[in-house]
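Data availability (excerpt). The following record was deposited with the supplementary files.
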Amino acid sequence: MNNISNIYNIPKEYMYDPNFQSKMKTILIGDSIGCEKIYVNIDYIKPGAVSVKYHSHSKQEEFFLVISGEGILRMNGEKILISKGDVISKLAGKDSRHQFINNSSDILQILDIGTREKDDIITYPDENLVYIKDKKQVFNIDNSIKNWTSEPNE
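Predicted structure:
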């Protein structure tokens, strides 16, 4: 089924922090109109705030468009200045660590589009954690088993 809506008519149930009381508000545009294979969000990041924890996805590909404001894109250990009109593609894999930081005095507004991927694993290198999204399980990489092998005859 195809759906048409208007960004200003999206119900609050499709928003994180609809009254923008915290440091970030997200409108789940794609969810509100029934997108299945992609998500489409608009993120509003207040001055001094960050979009998400620094992370990478094993399978999910993402696209970002800076709609308004300016800030910093922290990507793969680099800090890149971003501003209105900048577009960013983020492929899947460990070399796609990313996070937006609003270091300006205005709200940073970003269109965030990505694929919905089964069995996506999210890595948080600052915290040394791995999140298995479909199972909603988090593991600390420091507690990994050393010298383990899948070889049954050893």
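Summary of structural features: The chain has one helix and 13 strands.
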